[in-house]
Amino acid sequence: MRAEFINPFLASLINVLNTMASMPMTPQKPRLKKDEIARGDVSGLIGMIGPKTKGSMSITFEQDLALEIMQRMLGERPAGINEDVTDMVGEITNMVTGGAKRALAENGYDFDMATPAVVSGKGHTITHKCDNAIILMPFDSDYGKAYIEICFD
Amino acid sequence: MRAEFINPFLASLINVLNTMASMPMTPQKPRLKKDEIARGDVSGLIGMIGPKTKGSMSITFEQDLALEIMQRMLGERPAGINEDVTDMVGEITNMVTGGAKRALAENGYDFDMATPAVVSGKGHTITHKCDNAIILMPFDSDYGKAYIEICFD
């Protein structure tokens, strides 16, 4: 996968969480996902299709981080992952992908976004099935970890 | 969501599992997903984009059913959900969506498919985030349950 596909997603997540939730996220070095497994408790997933490529992206959050973002964005903190949290994760997924889409379009890479789906379940993992390498971008925060994974054919 | 979007997915899942794994699946009545929650252990998810619509689909399997399909399709039965199983679920997701895509194209509904992603995690749930109702299609088998969920804007 082209390296210039990576930074727009990384920058978009940092920007969205800073702007919407005043939540600073520290990116670790993006890497190829091989044996490494990103586990989390709630994830947004979205499909992308362009004239020359197609792929999928996920954003996975640990529960404490998702609940803290909820508190900061909406001023409420449910006891666990409920429909309000999955709605928020779906929105974040749309916003992060939309931000990356705009940045990539400026560089001549166009794609359309499908609608997102949100997975909830303690310690689940996601495997993107495409013909290229999966890129894993880990993020740290004071409240837990988040991961973006992307894969494009 | 238009009712004619439902049957192509339902028929395609039954056809794919019958053909590829000699696994008969008994469909229950499709319904709107409201409070009902489809829980499973491994799911394939895919995004779809057409000129007039976009959406997402998931197929969720209970673990025992996924492992039995694995045994029947590939002659091996891992102890749990491993990469071979997620590869198979990704392939089934592609085949079921491809079958539905062909049937829908004949009726004038065109869409392109993104690449699939596979979720694994005991008892996870999936929530499709689109502007329309989510349709839930439950299936029974001798080895466990499967569910299709679809949502189109």
Automatic annotation (TrEMBL), chains A, B:
Report the residue ranges that make up the Chemotaxis phosphatase CheX-like domain in this protein: 42-139
The domain of life is Bacteria
Give the matching InterPro entries. CheC-like_sf, CheX-like, CheX-like_dom
One Pfam family, short name: CheX
Record's keyword terms, sorted: Chemotaxis
**Chloroplast is among the record's keywords:** no
Q: Does the keyword Calcium apply?
A: no
> By its UniProt entry, which SUPFAM superfamilies does this protein fall under?
CheC-like (SSF103039)
GO BP, one annotated term: chemotaxis
Q: What is this protein called?
A: Chemotaxis phosphatase CheX-like domain-containing protein
What is the scientific name of the source organism? Answer: Photobacterium angustum (strain S14 / CCUG 15956)
Q: What is the lineage of its organism?
A: Bacteria, Pseudomonadati, Pseudomonadota, Gammaproteobacteria, Vibrionales
